[in-house]
């Protein structure tokens, strides 16, 4: 039976990035239940990178990975992983308090995060209904992520470092024998020193196979659509627009407009599909905000964003199950935080301290540890 140092369950962004990081010094195997790595949440994201999005720990992990995004190792990706976009958080007059609170939280991050006038937003994105936007906050450094390029870069890099990925390999059983994990999967049996649980929405189910107490993970459905802007309207340079209370967002995407009602419907883990009602809610919300016609929806999808109670990812060893490492609960931030979290996994999985560059940003082991959820 093949034996590994780290056996990672799940080849989404979490498992792929952790596998790449750990394979620099260890024998790594990733088992993925689907034929295609990235089939679930990773392949369904909105590809936003914003250091102003998410709670303080999420923001620190996002900033902590920025260096990797901007300067990945040579040969990692054929194209830049981040492209300039900018994000504007907008509000009606009755949402001013939300924008005040938001600005107070993020204005210390960078000096160019600032309030902008409604007229400036209307000039940049000339489709708002007159008088709708009363207030706005701009983060000009937000970017679009090449999610496929990042994910493939990690998987190619894993292979180049001697790591392995086996697809169509659903993990069905975990047990301990002579200090090693015995992993039963659809693709056969494997042994490993450490199991890394990067199973996305299924992470609590994998925890149960190992005998671990649940972390209280709740997968939440989020829906997105793409539609064409009217002929002659150039949307390419629009920033991403996010409602101050996250009731919707939209942004240009390869000549079309990607939009979401920012829904968060709790669901059991599954191959989630979009619901007509969520799309109707989105179209209704957009009609109140912009004058854009939506004659035809070109594509629609949904994915599961999985959260624990404090909306902070769960990264670290279980305190009761030996050599069982959690890498879950990335919520709506698992792409932008991936390089930062991968650096953290590399250290914590080897029982080393939080890397200094993450520590300097305020990342602590305790804030991410599964033990905080007991
Ligand atoms: C609509 C939408 C918009 C989003 N927008 C953004 C955004 O703008 N920016 C951002 O940073 N994030 C965004 N996200 C969140 C981001 O996509 C997720 O945080 C991230 O993809 C989570 O990655 P993951 O690897 O944990 O999960 P997944 O990609 O779901 O990977 C988990 C993998 O585990 C596998 N697995 C499960 N059980 C088993 C088993 N028993 N055996 C083997 N394999 C198993 C699954 O098949 C799956 O491939 C968005 C998500 C959605 C749905």
TrEMBL record:
A Pfam family matched in the record: DAO
SUPFAM superfamilies: FAD/NAD(P)-binding domain
Keyword Nucleus among record annotations: no
Source organism phylogeny: Bacteria, Pseudomonadati, Pseudomonadota, Alphaproteobacteria, Rhodospirillales
Gene3D superfamilies (UniProt xref): D-Amino Acid Oxidase, subunit A, domain 2 (3.30.9.10), FAD/NAD(P)-binding domain (3.50.50.60)
Native source organism of the sequence: Hypericibacter terrae
Coiled coil: none
Start and end residues of each FAD dependent oxidoreductase domain: 5-346
UniProt name for this protein: FAD-dependent catabolic D-arginine dehydrogenase DauA
Keywords associated with the record: Oxidoreductase
A Gene Ontology cellular-component term: cytoplasm
Organism superkingdom: Bacteria
Any one GO MF annotation of this record: oxidoreductase activity
The encoding gene: dauA
Transmembrane domains' residue ranges: none
